Amino acid sequence: MLYLWIKALHVLAVISWMAGMLYLVRLYVNHAMETESVVMERFQGMERRLLNAITTPAMVVAALTGLGMLLMNPGLFMLAWMQVKLAMVVGMLAMHGLAIGWRKKLIDTPHFKPHTFFRYMNEIPTLLMIVIVVMVIVRPF
Ligand code: HEM
Fold first, then answer.
1. Whose C-alpha lies nearest to ligand 1, atom 6?
2. C-alpha span between 13 and 69 (Å, rounded)
3. Is the CB of 12 under 6 A from ligand 1?
4. Which domain range does residue 16 map to?
């Protein structure tokens, strides 16, 4: 029963983490296209709040609940779909780290990358998320 409550919390945290990741990099696209400093400052505030108030706390809760379930049910480590999922999660954590770095760079150098760079980067969490959900729901192997 406790396991199911932890899983419910995990899914809620994952939804918030993914919402944050997808919107954050989309904000970077707009930020990198902007030329007016007032609007750029507004983007900086939106990005800081989205990252620090929602996306990072949600990531921490998703990781803690996920690790908790793995400790309660260590047999999951042996399953190929879980190994693929965890590999994709490592990629998602790397994207999160990169997004933290990009936010800081955009403050001083808003055009350090073209907006197309962020458009491509925005696809990566989407693809990782699709693979993760197929792994945990379909469990193809
Ligand atoms: C942060 C590191 C993560 C860890 C350690 C982790 C680990 C786990 C574990 C152990 C389960 C329970 C599986 C079971 O009981 O059969 C689970 C369930 C689930 N995870 Fe994660 N997970 C993580 C991140 C994610 C992410 C990023 C997503 C989605 C993008 C996700 C989506 C799900 C879903 C939808 C379930 C419920 C599957 C079901 O119905 O049993 N997880 N996770």
1. 66
2. 14
3. no
4. 2-137
